[in-house]
Amino acid sequence: MRIFKFGGASVKDAAGIKNVYDVLLKAGYEDVLLVVSAMGKTTNALEIVIKNYFDKSDELKSSVQEIKKYHNQILLDLFEDDKNEVFAAVNTQFLELEYFLIHNKSPNYDFVYDQIVSYGELISTTILSHFMSYMGIKTQWLDVRNFIKTNANYRDAEVDWELTQANISKNVKRKILNVTQGFLGSDENNFTTTLGREGSDYTAAIFAYCINAESVTIWKDVPGVMNADPRYFENASLLNQISYREAIELAFYGATVIHPKTLQPLQKKEIPLYVKSFINPLLPGTSVSKGSTLEPFMPCFIVKREQLLISLSSIDFSFIMEENISEIFGLFHQFKLKVNLIQNSAISFSVCVEDKFGNFKELNSILSKKFKVDFTENVTLYTIRHSDDKAAHTVEEGKTVLLKQVGTETMQIVTKEN
Ligand code: ADP
Ligand code: ASP
Ligand code: MG
């Protein structure tokens, strides 16, 4: 069996869904499992619904209405006959969502988040699977929550591999087109969980691992994995082949084209991963496998914007050693700041972090009691794999370099735009 994953960008409108059908005609659809994300920016739109719900905002109803309208338009563009049962199926899903919003009693934000945000994937797969049947492909819709079992760590649930493996090997039918949701799972009480934002690539890898799939293909709006994000680098080039190790490194440092959790299950069973263009499905794209590091071999650039550079130094000139460092890291973890770079000397310690949840102010008040804290907001972190002088120069040109760390394979540079 082959696993195909289609992300939000590939199913953002009716033309996108028709294009998925074209991709299937070209790539084949027998004995295939499709993992599909919410359409376009639906997950972000559902996050607004969640916010409105907790804020008891007057906009709650209209924010749901907007999502309904968006999906309804896609349905009307796809199906000529509005008597098609897909209209009732999607309508029922929206009624369920509205029922939850009225009757939920749980104050647990993360729990509520997962129960609501999951409708993005549930609805997109309902539409997509009906459309594939409508076009004459024998299709089966699977509720992924009957397959992927997780703990109850809502919004960032961990997979129970044993239960998941048993469910998947028993219940996925072969020889037809299976369609299921990315990003979702369920806990032991069958409540919906999610695997972390952008987690649908990971879902594809979970299925692949449990079913011993022949391969995984993630279909993207780019020709494959490139040596830089083409949104930010004009001359980005396609990497034809990369090793699992290189792909993990690139994803870890922030090449968002592959979700970092995707690689480990695939690497364990040596299942190849193809990253291909849903616009030009016949082009080879990038293949990630056991082979050589990087083909062609060239520097790879990864950019992380809106970072925070924090420098801590001891107030009394004492060393910053293991004990301090473990305490500092404990605090970063507690305040959910993601550390992307570390550099230390005898009496100072610098980190480049991402403050996704806006917790730095509170953390700073704690750190300041023990250390002298200096920080610069809004810096950019560049990571260059396999850097050379020219690559470093390209990054540094016209910017103020605040910190630079050079390793044998990886160079990291923190800059502030002038
Ligand atoms: P999905 O629709 O599956 O969620 P994403 O939007 O998450 O897809 O990933 C595709 C995007 O990743 C591309 O549009 C591109 O801007 C970005 N990207 C970041 N780094 C790279 C890279 N090294 N190579 C290709 N694309 C990259
Ligand atoms: N829909 C989810 C998100 O936007 C999962 C995914 O697209 O991978 O985060
Ligand atoms: Mg995505």
CATH class of the largest domain, named: Alpha Beta
Helix % is: 25-40%
Rough outline: globular
CATH architectural group of the largest domain = 3-Layer(aba) Sandwich
Helix and strand pattern: EHEHHHHHEHEEEHEEHHEEEEHEEHEHEE
Strand-pairing-aware structural class: alpha/beta
Sheet with the most strands: spatial strand order:
3-4-2-1-7-9-10-8-11
User: Total domains, how many?
Assistant: 2
CATH fold call of the largest domain: Carbamate kinase
User: At the fourth CATH level, what is the homologous superfamily of the largest domain?
Assistant: Acetylglutamate kinase-like
- Give the N-to-C terminal Cα separation: 52 Å
Strand content: 25-35%
The unreliable regions are none
- Number of DSSP helical runs: 13
Averaged pLDDT, please? Answer: 94
Tally of strands? 17
Largest sheet: 9 strands, mixed
Bound molecules: adenosine-5'-diphosphate, aspartic acid, magnesium ion
Q: In angstroms, what is the radius of gyration?
A: 23 Å
Binding site for ATP: 5-8, 231
Catalytic activity: L-aspartate + ATP = 4-phospho-L-aspartate + ADP
GO molecular function, one term: ATP binding
Protein name: Aspartokinase
